Amino acid sequence: MAKPIRIAGLSRRTPIARAAPNVLRAVLQDLLEKVPEARSGDSKKGIHDLRVAVKRFREAFRLFRPVLRKKTFRRHREWIEDLNDALGEVRDRDVALVELRKLTAGLAEPPRSVADRVARLESERLVSVAALAATLDRLQLEGLPAQLAARIESIEQEAASGRPTDEFARERVRERLLDVRARWAASQREATPESLHRLRIGNKRLRYAIEPFSRMLGKEIRRLYRSASRFHDVLGDLHDADSMAVMLETAMAGASKAERRAWEGLSVKVIRGRRVALRKALSLADKLEPLWDEAQHAVEEPPH
Q1: To the nearest 10°, the Cα dihedral for 102, 108, 112, 116?
Q2: DSSP H helical ranges for 191-256
Q3: Predicted TM-score of the model (pTM)
Q4: CA 9 to CA 18: how far, in whole Å?
Q5: Cβ distance 203 to 273 under 8 Å?
Q6: pLDDT tens per residue across span 167-195
């Protein structure tokens, strides 16, 4: 789990038009600092770290939409999403390669089609790395991050909102908390990989909404943040298992009759791992529900 970025100069009474550029400046700078290591695609950690930084910035950008000019939001939302998608294509191959090698590490004779699948994933990764480099080159050539940085510096002069940061933060956290609770209820009804993945996305947005303001929002929200971070990790394991199960089913369908049994064995391992991750997620969600209640009460009550 990436460490939260500490934002200096924020207080409850700080006008949100002044707090917004402080937060956005810090998370954009963190993103730009992580570009060099990820650019070549050689460092899996570099790819992962930049992907986390982009997601963190994307959520901060969404969070402060009420104080951004509509034109600024529309113009820069697209390239942020493009960069996030390009990083996701590389990261997905990295995760699949790690998991596939881990699954087959103990086999005396892995199916020959495993080597074919690994080679295919490695080839796809090279294509994805090239696409990521092209995206980064385009952003630099068009000067979009620099243009956004300049817009961030002008937020305080342009924004009409003089609301205190504490009020703004509690409202945004409440929105995202209610969204997580709705997604959790839906995942209980539907019990599908898709509904659990939507829950993971909502939980991630809640964490990133809390992050800049955790010091001013009280112990209840900080406690929720820590538990939401653990929940994110477990839901991530569950999502990885679901993705791997789909990949193995595809590989099994294309394998020869002689190799199909070996692929079935790998699928059984993944299914067992998914069951463990699901039990952990359900157990943690049961513990989270009282924290959701506590946090919702804290953000709905005016500060003393």
Answers
A1: 20
A2: 193-210, 219-254
A3: 0.88
A4: 10
A5: no
A6: 999 999 999 999 999 999 999 999 899 99
